[in-house]
User: Fold these one by one.
Assistant:
Number 1:
Amino acid sequence: MSLFSAALAWLAEPAHWSGPGSIPLRTAQHLGITALAVLLAALVALPVGVAVGHTRRGRVVVVALAGAARAVPTLGLLTLLALAMGIGPRAPLVALVVLAVPSLVAGAYAGVAGVDPATVDAARASGMSELQVVRHVEIPWPGRCSSVPCGPPRCRSSPPPPWPRTSPTWASGGTCSPASSRATTPRCSPVRCSSPRSRCSSRPRSPGCTGHRPGAQTLSSPSNHHPNHPSDLPAPTPSGRTPVSTTTRLATLAVAGLTLALAACSGGDPLATPTEADGAGTAGPGSASTIVIGSQDYYSNEIIAEVYAQALEGAGYTVDRQFRIGQREAYLPEIEDGAIDLFPEYSGPVLQYWVPDTPARLADDVYAALADATPEGLRVLDQSPATDQDSYMVTRAFADQWGLSTIDDLAKVSTPLTLGANSEGESRPNGPAGLKKTYGIDVGFTPIEDGGGPLTVKALLDGDIQLAIIYTADPSVGKNDLVALQDTRGLFLASHVVPLASDDVDDAAAAVINEISAAMTPDELVALNARSVDEQPPAATIATDWLTEQDLA
């Protein structure tokens, strides 16, 4: 009798289908162990994978887990656990959990990280909290479309709709709009939308909100907060440090210890692109490893980081691009831990992160205080003349008429002045009261609810206002030939582009970056941002062209 015939005969034996060792009972036991193993692995892996995919922190551990899983001999692990725990269900259960966790972590990470960034940006722009972004946009609940407040829902797989960049409304009352990130049901309330040049991208992500207060101008546009606005910084803890979520770190440490010894057996990074997989090795002169360059989830910052990367590659260094990481509270701990070697930062906001109560306001004072506040193992390279910060803007014609170049010069103007900004700007330190206190200049105020966007610019060009609060790197500055008045007394917190580097960035690499910083003027940065908004090429293309124009390629 052949083995096949013997197996069929064994299955056909009635005694094997009843009793304590029956086929149905053993099948149920195996299915139960498998289900329990998957459940236990999912309880550990899914929160870790989702957290890593959302924050982009802990990716190195995910890579190690996935690589280790490929190298672990399944039968060898099961035999080892059986010898340690004895024969029974515990050994296979533990083995299955250990083998399932890496795959589930990697899958959850890849799924969340693969969500269309435009959808995530639009969700944040509409006021969703980070938890709401995860729950309602990034996690693919069965049958659910990824929806974004302030606009109709759309499925993750569908392309972003062609929303108009602006759609002014002039109604006298607020229209019904989705609530803020603290609620989930629609309500009627004034909703502020920032300008198209805000943090995540300059490109349209979702239709804007339409509610506004009487007497205010309202703009429908994306509402991503600019990453360097002091008011957007998280509140400091009693220790003076910005609160940082430790979910990813605690969860990944729980499984990292099990895989560190196995990670060395991995043949490579299963999640890396071919460029990343081949990028390990010598970084360049005086360096023993790849230079990891990060960027904020902000299109202008990504362009600067790409300029750094291409310049270093041209000098013979190997770089690893870790772009669009997120906000300051997400990426600065990674920089402090040594996971990122080089990052384009902004002097004032990063100083306030480390020293929340700093009295420094002017550019040189801020830079000196930042150099002193930088943690051990890090240093700031030369700050650039380029800035990305709030400022008072006037038209070129108005500046020429009154001879204006600084805020002090506003004292020369003999006609009434009106400042235009978001409604909350009226009570901010750089509003009318702050201008009066610091410079002794009286101005009126007109609320324009678009965060220094097109409506603010139009009101400025039309003469409805004479003064506007607009970011210095906003593309509209160059397009409309606006003039930023120099702040000589520190009314606005100075925010110059400044490279933050680890000690692993050698002197030769630092010299390359310092040359970039010196060449990047305020007008150059505005031009780079304007090209990103108008032509929408990749950051790599913009960086390559700029380096060529500056003879730095």
Note: The CA atoms of residues 135 and 141 lie 8 Å apart.
Number 2:
Amino acid sequence: MALFRGHGMVETLRFALVLCVASIPVAMPTVLSVTLAVGAERLARRRAVVTRLAAIEELAGIDILCSDKTGTLTQNRLSLGRPFCVPGCAVDHLIHCAALASREEDRDPIDEAVLVAAAADPPVESRRLEAFQPFDPVRKRTEATLVESGARRFRVSKGAPQVLLAMAANAVAVQADVTRAVEGFAARGYRSLAVAEAEGDQPWHLLGVLPLFDPPRDDSKTTLEELRQLGIATKLITGDQVAIAREMAGQLGLGAEILLAESLEDLSAGPFHDPGERIERADGFAQVFPEHKYRIVELLQRRGHLVGMTGDGVNDAPALKRADAGIAVSGATDAARSAADIVLLSPGLSVVVEAIRESRRIFQRMHHYAVYRIAETIRVLVFMTVSILVFDFYPLSALMIVLLALLNDGAILSIAYDRTRWSPRPVRWQMPVVLGVATALGLAGVVATFGLLWLAEVVFAQPRELIQTPPLSQALGGGTSDRVRGPYGGALLVCAAGPAAAAGGGRHPAAGHPAGRERHLHGPDRLGVGPAGVGLLAGVVPGGGSGEATGLPAVRPTADPAAQPQGDLSSTLSAAGGVPEGLMIGLSAALIGLPY
């Protein structure tokens, strides 16, 4: 079209190149990185350290949280109850053997509870520890080999009842009683710890079961309810038995649908068996091994969920790495922290609630920027195209377009501090919605800016050199006036409003607010954002208007522009040619206040 109308090839190509470059969101990586970095700093204040910035966006969208029971939902402070002993074994001997299979330097909560209960037993000087195997999540037991002065060599072990029953030679005789005792403990929320001993290399002999109680944290039930209100389903994961998990889930307000982790791989239901559906319906999982955690996360992700996983041990690292938001709880090992996306510095899950809310605020800022940037790109491209087709006129020069891109992209960095509200539901990128809203706002901006150009070109027949100023002011101000906050507001609005605003200084003449003061204007006062609002009042009311009507000092222009007070906008309007020019600048200032 430009060539058909006789424009030069070089000038046309140069302008098209500048327009294309200005439409590219070159500041998008910077803006998003700054927004995430500022959000990570705010999360750190809430004692949630982010190790991967992209995890903030994923944390905002999780809809399922898989949480460990011990130490996360419970206090991890175990106390010993009244034990169960097989016939022929005394309580003191049971506790003594359990203490021999414990090690104080490991700082394990179970070992500490057992050692506290056995503290009254005097140490045997002639006894020597020959070997010790610490607790292993796969073996689920500890084992110690000891030698006494009389060359007596014996072994002691403590661990999961089902593991020690499978090893014991007297399992057939005591299994019914042990099972009944374990179920009774589990019904009251007690964990069961079996104890066994063996002489030399002889078979193991089960001695009894110790009940251990780990009370839930005071804030766990409230935290889970807050997560539920945020649209997040919490699934309990524990290595304990089903009865214990069900009892704890009841105390925490979770459901009673607890699955055995082994059942996840059960294919007996036929070739169409879908374990992901069972996991989706379950409220928790019992007798979980580390590999089961990875499998649970994987199956939930296949069902379309964004999954968060908490963990603290070395064996939790694969599941933390697999999860969309891996969360290492307070006191986690170095391996778990390195694999996690977020590291909690405070015990419990209450920090997670605050982190999710803050991440959703951050996501809203990113969402707002995406809508804004797409809308501004549509507005500039469509406005320039329509203006050239209708009026055969470039309303913005190449330099103005570059200035528009620089000032808008620079000002939008302040969106990292924008005031937003967290969504009550998990948030994800919905590109059809983003594009639809941005297109509607961009076209509305085209109508506003093109209407300003039409008034100047057709109604007031203004020179085109003057016309180029209001569209630039409106294009710049429309993008920055609602986004700028804090110390940047006044200065950027003065730049955005063009020469007319710069003549008025950096202070609201009526209210006396400094340009750098954090302030968001609404209603009639919105027209006074920066000094550009004076242009509207002076343009609509010939002669500047009265102080009663506008809230501004009444300033009457004189025939001699030099007689006007320095810094007064009326002098600028008089020098520009009178009321029509002032009205155009005023309309430009009014359009700056449109809510993009």
Note: Residues 9-36+357-592 form one domain.
